[in-house]
Design a protein that fits this description.
Layout (H helix, E strand, L loop, with lengths): L8 E5 L2 E9 L6 E7 L5 E5 L6 E4 L3 E2 L2 E2 L5 E4 L10 H13 L4 E3 L5 E5 L1
Antiparallel strand pairs: 1-2, 2-3, 3-4, 4-5, 5-8, 6-7, 8-9, 9-10
């Protein structure tokens, strides 16, 4: 089953297609940047304008490793700009797919201190 592209922007990073959008989170007062790969292996959300900047991995793979199927939160080692651009989306995708050593954080942003 493919991902609906309605209301989403397309981006190609390293010859792989992704869809992204910014939407109000249903469970909080924050807007969230959502990114999903065509094959749904990478699904990440990035809450915007939060005190501790982090991403939520919801897909099957993150930084080249299989996930446990649960939502996992990781400290973001770079700043989220006020205006989200395709360049930032690409940076986030590259970090989520090609880098290693992400540090897990609790649901409220507190560090576990466990690099993956």
């Amino acid at each position: 089953m493919s991902v609906s592209s309605k209301g989403k922007r397309k981006i190609n990073v390293c010859n792989k297609n992704y869809l992204w959008n910014i939407a109000l989170d249903d469970d909080s007062a924050y807007y969230t940047l959502n990114i999903v790969s065509d094959d749904k292996y990478l699904i990440i959300s990035c809450p915007l304008q939060v005190k501790t900047e982090y991403v939520i991995s919801k897909g099957r793979i993150f930084q080249g490793k299989e996930t446990n199927g649960c939502w996992n939160r990781y400290f973001l080692p770079f700043h989220i700009p006020e205006i989200i651009t395709p360049k930032f989306v690409e940076q986030l995708i590259v970090w989520s797919t090609q880098n290693t050593g992400a540090i897990k954080v609790n649901w409220n942003g507190g560090e576990h201190g466990i690099p993956i």
